[in-house]
Amino acid sequence: MNVLKKMKINLFLAGLFFLLAGANVYGQSILEQKLDSLSKLFDFSYKRLPVDGFFSEKYLLEIKQPLNHDVPSGKTFVQRVFLSHKGFDNPVVFVTEGYWAEYAANPEYVNELCPILNANQIVVEHRFFPPSVPDTLDWRYLTVEQSAADHHNVVEVLKNIYKGKWISTGISKGGQACIFFRYLYPEDVDISVPYVAPLNFSTFDTRINRFLDTVGSLRCRKSIRNYQTELLSHREKYLPYFKKLAGKKGYTYGMGFEKAFDLMVFEYRFAFWQWGQTPCDSIARDTANPQKMIEHLDKVADISWVSDQNAEKYRPFFYEAMKQIGMYGYDISPFKNITVFDKNPDFAFTLPKGAKEGFDPSLVNSVDCFIRHRAKNMMFIVGGSDPWGATSVNLSYQNNLVKFVKPYGSHRTRINNLPSGMRQKAVDLLKKWLEE
């Protein structure tokens, strides 16, 4: 080959390389092209985000949603949706987040179901959690039905891209949203995997307190009770340290310090079992050191829990809990003579100003019936020592429904930390459902 011809070939190959490189840098991927077309039809914007590891592309979608889906031409808000791409023919893990979804912007975030099922990932931020909020918080439209309609809209948009199997999932309140979404839109997804998700029947579901009376060992329950009794019986010794710690952390309590102190002592038992991170032998007993006793209370139960700041931050959760999705309360009967409360307290103090009290059980009762008799291909993951497990769904074991309960598991229970045999059964079942 002469030198001139070789040079021409090399110049052609170099030009072709730079042309292709330019297309890769400046052009749109196939997914971007699809999003671009859909954005014009469904009124959303999108931007590419960095991604590292399991997925090849990640995008933030800002989808315009009706504030009231019954009046789609009315007020709207922008909802954040995080899309992580694996492949157009792969299944989709659809995460119904119950709170904020900022974590999904992390380039390395991967829901545990995605590697199990080799799936794409879509995470939807819950309405009324910033920045997925309307200009004015009209609490009438923070309902299970409106939130599920948000999820339905997202599915309707993105099923134009992903036409394979869809698996909905969520953790805790997100798990509740997963259950409610499946009930209200049963054909939108093929499989549902709610994690540590309660189905509460009231704002003071007594099943939780009955569970707390029997969970764990008698010795451990007695240690918890002794700790609580010590704090309440000698509040004059401990309350100043509670106030000091709250002041240091910037917490205020509209109900007053005494009531807040008692509520945190009651919460201690629930939090102890919910998170399962405190060995029974490490329950504080050094009554000569009141500061350490209060620091232990904060470590286990977090004294921000009933603060004005926490109530404001989690107002949407508390509102939904007191209106439709239920909650727990505190049984004060063992402390009747040493507490400032004269009746069992609940979380009504967290409601927005002007909001009327009143729980509507019709939805959860209907969902309970749906789970027992009509639902299919749903897998519930529950921690055996998690108080929220006391109000987990009851199954009739029809229609491919299963509940895996991790022995001594906490609210952090996931498929990947189930005992090996149980974990393998869960994975095998999910893959079997996916192939059906």
Unreliable segments of 5+ consecutive residues: 1-25
Number of structural domains = 2
Number of strands: 9
Q: Order of strands across the widest beta sheet? A: 1-2-3-5-4-6-7-8-9
Question: Could you please say which CATH topology of the largest domain applies here?
Answer: Rossmann fold
**What structural class do you assign from the helix and strand content?**
alpha/beta
User: What's the CATH architecture name of the largest domain?
Assistant: 3-Layer(aba) Sandwich
Task: Report the CATH superfamily of the largest domain.
Answer: Alpha/Beta hydrolase fold, catalytic domain
Taking all Cα atoms into account, the compactness measure Rg is 26 Å
Q: What is the CATH C-level name of the largest domain? A: Alpha Beta
Largest sheet properties: 9 strands, mixed
Number of helices: 14
How would you characterize the overall build of this protein?
Mean pLDDT is 93; it is low at 1-25. Helix content is 42%, strand content 14%. It is globular. The chain folds into two domains: 30-201 and 362-435, Rossmann fold; 206-350, no CATH class. The protein has helices at residues 3-26, 30-42, 113-117, 144-158, 173-184, 206-212, 218-233, 235-249, 257-275, 290-301, 308-313, 315-325, 362-373, 420-435; strands at 44-49, 57-66, 76-85, 92-96, 120-124, 166-171, 191-195, 378-383, 401-406. The protein is α/β, with parallel strands linked by helices. A nine-stranded mixed beta sheet has the order 1-2-3-5-4-6-7-8-9, sandwiched between helices. A hairpin with a 7-residue loop joins β1 and β2.
